[in-house]
Amino acid sequence: MTGPGGSLHLRSLCKRYGSYPAVDSVDLQIERGEFLTLLGPSGSGKTTLLMMIAGFQDITSGDILLDGTSIANTPAEKRNFGMVFQGYALFPHMTVKDNIAYPLSVRKRPKAEIAARVAEMLDLVRLTPFAKRFPKELSGGQQQRVALARALCFAPPVLLLDEPLGALDKKLRIEVQAQLKDIHQRVGTTFVYVTHDQEEALSMSDRIVIMQNGRIEQVGTPSDLYQQPKTAFAASFLGKSNFLRRDGAVFALRPEKIDLAPAGAGQGANKVSGAVQSVTYFGAVLKYQVAVPGMDPIEVDVDAWRGGAALPEGARVDLTWSETAAVRLTDQTL
Amino acid sequence: MHDKQFMRETLLQGAQAFQAGKMGRRSFLALCGMAGFASTSVLAGRAEAAASEIVMWNWGGQSEECHQSAIGVPFTKATGVPLKFDTSGPLQGKIKDMVDSGHVTADVCDADLFDAVALGKTGHLEPIDYSVVDKTKTVDGYALEFGISIILYGYAFMYDTQAYPNGAPTGWADFFDTAKFPGTRSLYKWANGSLEAALMADGVEKDKLYPLDIDRAIKKISAIKADSIYWGSGSEAHDMIVNGEVSMGMVWQNRGRSIETDTNGRFKLVMNQALAMPGAYIVPKGNPGGAAAQTFIATAQSVQSQLDLFTCLGMTPTNPEAIAKMAEGDQPYSITSAANMPLIALNDPTWWGENTDAAVNAFLAAIS
Amino acid sequence: MRLPIQSGWLLVLPFLLLVGGLFLGPILNILWLSVTDPTPGLGNYAQLVTSDTLGRILWTTIRVCVICTVFSVLFGYSIAYAMVHAAGPTQSRMLSLLLVSFWISVLVRTFSWLMLLGRNGVVNSGLEALGIISQPIPFMRNELGVLIGMIHYMVPYAVLPILASMQSIDGRVVQASRSLGATGAQTLWRVYLPLTRAGVVAASLLVFIINLGFYVIPAVLGGGKVLMVAEYISVQVLVTLQWGTAAMLAALLLFGVLTLLFIMSRFMKLSTVFGGART
């Protein structure tokens, strides 16, 4: 549907405000057609990084390469990157059609080509009946789709998305995530997506970059990151983790990877015993909080359909897990 | 009338002068019916005017002091009635508005004699009581039914001696001859004086000016329009000359003396064919002070008051006895002095009182 | 059922009547005067057709006002743009300077221009001393002088409404335009200008209407040759006592301004122009 996506290479990219590093020596290779998510809490530098890629933020040092060519000194309007902004930044004085046509009309393309392309994009985001409306006459989700169509209309090699779903309610967000993923697959453009929402990151991305304090904490596929977090920050920011100290090292242990059994029933090398502190019913799972002497309380998820009736508070239990379930982290302490 | 601006300008130097603009507008607001607010707040403080005092309506500044010391002091001494001031400037339109509103707060206006003609005709003025005021103590023909001339001022022109080293201009004919005397000219922009000057330049005898041939005057003025600029206040006229914007400029004659002095004679005043203008005292219809206003006017005619006013303000006396007593050095600058009298033309207030609208509008049409 | 008369209106009713009376009274008085003085009828209005002078004065007024409005808004737009894009402290310094300029009296400005650009002013003597010109350039005492003086006076008035409309623009919209490939000029022309249109219209109206009433600047800097309606009205009221003509011209100005507002209201909501709620 559009040209092939572009590959981006970020080399030792830095952005400093005075002595404060907003982005600190970031090295990253983004593959052609990839859906890459920059995930991190606010202040982690993810948006600054995106704005540097877009050309709206100058870089202190380092380089950005598009398909092997440096674009560090190319102004934003010449980079040809599509961008979907937080809050969409639609042109309020233009109709949906004119918004989408804008990137082509500023490039002075022939009218017929523009009309055809706009129709195609309207169809892609399923907004054809709304072509003549103004942005303020659309719902949040519809506006978001207009922004997407506008940013993709000129077939950019890279699409940058800055928390595009932030303004939507949860139900709609899940729906739009699916649409976004679908559109990504159909257009083949490289997507660089910024969010602080771990579920969004997990459900859409080919790879996720977890950022903290301007640095890359860890890069990997969603399952890599989830199964093999390298740091306590990665383990706790993406999903939940219990942290155990063993043999001078720190291990992360996901709550759903622990087996819970009444005291004496637990088998295996990795076993601790404790008492149920609290139990909460979540429909699919029961979440136990278990007090273990000499350790932080351990969280355990048990599939509700499997476990029968919940154990009462104060009940003595054994916790066990397989050898591979506990992941050794690089952190020496917590 | 607007020529009264001259007096104010004489007194308020520089920027202050242009309050003319503000006043005009404010007074127009009065017309708009804001009268109860804006206009009375201007005419102001004098609402309590009663027979126990005389309120003089003049242009403020130095003239307030001068009128008080030259006329007010002897008047109060003789009658026990104090003299107070409204300094907002008695333009014809304002006097008319005050009388029409039925709220008269002034007794004597420091105005022009043609105001007496125009406003007398429309019933806005009290007649002068010639049993109290002396007809003979003014210039012949300047004691009218509704007003009497107390002082004189006039229109003359000045030239830049450096612009004309080989022969100075001597009269209005030279002023209007831009071929013989190249350079920019300045004229008064509300017609008065400018029309007379143009006619004298065109060869009309100075004692046969009236009734003015407006068309002929306008033609002469239009001929040098490209080389002319026009002033609306005395300080503007002063600046145009002193700043070198013009090489010949019309001025209010009494300003000429100070310009000559200030510039060490670089700019010279030409009194030949100057036009004498009668400044007059007039009394608004239904003035609060009643007959005391007439006594006040009579006081202003006294030789001492007239001479004091000349010293204080530079206005030429009208009382022949006072003219005769003027110091030798003052004579060339006194428009009615024996030496100047044969050279000058005398303004006809009756013609102006009856034809101001036609003359001013024809002039404005020509210069704008 | 009782009519829902809102008690709030009753409370302000006396003031409404007072204000209404104080505004309507004078306006009616003007209209009345314009058809009764000096004789009843439409004679004063007929002058508009029959008098060349009035036609010329009106034409001068409109010409000067339009030119002044165009340049004031142009300069005002540039200044507002610079202010919006300046850093916080610079922006507030600029705003203070702008507001301070409101306090400089029109008389001081007028004389300053004469000193600066007059025949023997700083600029002319400087250029002559440098040998660039042999004759002084006539900046002042003509229509150019009036325009310079008026534009200088009006620029701050133009800045404020434009500044307000620029400040309400979401900066991301401008970034969006750039990211979509628009050049600076295209962004300005197709996004920035349309989004600040309300501010531009408000500034133009404000400047034009204030210009119509200008008096001192044309009178002094025009050297008497640039006669505009306001000064002419004043002369007719104070000097020639033709109050009917003056009232007619005042009524004409009033209706001119109202017509302008009406035409503008056909194109856009006046409340948005004057900073009301945007809906």
Describe the fold and architecture.
The complex is a heterotrimer of chains A (334), B (368) and C (279). Chain A has 334 residues and is of the alpha+beta class. Chain A folds into 2 domains: 8-232, P-loop containing nucleotide triphosphate hydrolases (Rossmann fold); 244-328, Nucleic acid-binding proteins (OB fold (Dihydrolipoamide Acetyltransferase, E2P), Beta Barrel), CATH 2.40.50.140. Chain A is 28% helix and 32% strand. Chain A contains 10 helices and 18 strands. Chain A has helices at residues 46-54, 76-79, 96-106, 111-124, 140-152, 170-187, 198-204, 222-227, 232-237, 304-307, and strands spanning 8-17, 20-30, 35-39, 61-66, 69-70, 82-84, 158-162, 190-195, 207-212, 215-220, 242-246, 249-253, 259-262, 270-281, 285-291, 298-303, 316-321, 327-328. In chain A, the strands form 4 sheets. Chain A has a 6-stranded mixed β-sheet with strand order 6-7-8-3-9-10, sandwiched between helices. Chain A is elongated, with a radius of gyration of 24 Å. Chain A starts with 7 loop residues before the first strand and ends in a 6-residue tail after the last strand. Chain B has 368 residues and is an alpha/beta fold. Chain B folds into 2 domains: 2-152 and 277-342, D-Maltodextrin-Binding Protein, domain 2 (3-Layer(aba) Sandwich); 155-275 and 352-367, Periplasmic binding protein-like II (D-Maltodextrin-Binding Protein, domain 2), CATH 3.40.190.10. Helices cover 40% and strands 18% of the residues of chain B. Chain B is built from 15 helices and 12 strands. Chain B has helices at residues 5-11, 19-31, 38-43, 62-79, 92-100, 113-121, 172-175, 194-201, 214-223, 234-242, 253-262, 292-300, 303-313, 320-324, 349-367; strands at residues 54-57, 83-86, 108-112, 125-126, 143-144, 147-160, 185-188, 228-231, 248-252, 267-284, 316-317, 345-346. In chain B, strands 1, 2, 3, 4, 5, 6, 7, 8, 9, 10, 11 and 12 form a 12-stranded mixed β-sheet that branches. In chain B, a hairpin with a 2-residue loop joins β5 (143-144) and β6. In chain B, α4 runs antiparallel to α13 and α8 packs across α9. The radius of gyration of chain B is 20 Å and the shape is globular. Mean pLDDT of chain B is 85; it is low at 1-50. In chain C, α1 (7-36) packs across α13 (243-267), α3 (52-84) packs antiparallel against α10 and α5 packs across α7 (143-167). Chain C has a single domain, classed as MetI-like (MetI-like fold), CATH 1.10.3720.10. The radius of gyration of chain C is 23 Å and the shape is globular. Chain C has 14 helices and no strands. Chain C has helices at residues 7-36, 43-50, 52-84, 88-101, 106-117, 122-129, 143-167, 171-179, 184-195, 197-212, 216-221, 229-238, 243-267, 270-273. At the A-C interface, α2 and α3 of A face α8 and α9 of C.
